[in-house]
Amino acid sequence: MSTLHAPILRWYDRHQRDLPWRSADASAWGVLVSEVMLQQTPVARVLPVWAAWMERWPTPAALAAEPTGEAIRMWGRLGYPRRALRLHAAATAIEERFDGRVPDTYEELLSLPGVGDYTAAAVASFAYGARHVVLDTNVRRVLARTVAGHEFAGASVTAAERRLAEAVLPTEDAPLWAVASMELGALVCTAANPRCGACPVADQCAWRLAGSPAYDGPPRRGQAWAGTDRQCRGRLMAVLRDADGPVHRTVLDGAWADAEQRERALAGLMSDALVEQVGPDTYALPG
DNA sequence: CAATCGTGGTA
DNA sequence: TTACCAAGATT
């Protein structure tokens, strides 16, 4: 498996995408913003929002100085708007606890709202050059196939999986390995219809060598959507985002027919601090 | 550990 | 058209 590195790094050198948060002059703040936006969200959708976000809030201090509702509005249709709220909270924490500078250690990064294991490792690696296992869905799939011989990684990260990722992590240039293996998973070793013909390690891929056996693990749950509270919340948030100011209850009523579910969703959004009630029958993004 | 949390592109 | 799924975190 030690022979994975050279081909993948060579492939990355030739095929890497030119993403703005990878540029040499990207700030640690820019890297952090990109990583949070990229959680469960495709690169293509993040690009324009990241650019607008960084222009408006080039530093954590700039974001922390504004109401959370502005962050939620700027988040647009990226999805999972609690990420916008947490990014704002992270900016505030960076101001208060780290003197305005994005922290450079895994532990300190992990202490920020909305930053979990992946994001902490990614920022420490990509913004500061630290050596960490950066275990995202792409890397997990690449290792599952090339080393373990399975089509897909399991539902959650296992201890064995983490040990494997640690064993593969090179001593030198760990961040380069992290970004290269992620990029391979994103562009070639994709979940559906992998482009094995373009893969630099196809000849040593355990999954291929085993005849590309179909996934036989536990069923991978799909994400229910139609008619769910999530869809209802999304509708309500879209109405509030697109409005200039407070919105009357009757307007929200028009966004979702089922009154009981609508009320539950609205209560949940307020509980999450994504929405606030500003009058007897009016609601708005938090000011 | 499992459930929850948005959105839109693609096959 | 439906189903899958994209650089996860939190509870």
UniProtKB/TrEMBL annotation:
Residues 37-187 form the HhH-GPD domain. The keyword Iron-sulfur applies. Its cofactor is [4Fe-4S] cluster. The keyword 4Fe-4S applies. It comes from the Bacteria. Pfam families: HHH (PF00633), HhH-GPD (PF00730). CDD domains: ENDO3c (cd00056). Its EC number is 3.2.2.31. Belongs to the Nth/MutY family. This is Adenine DNA glycosylase.
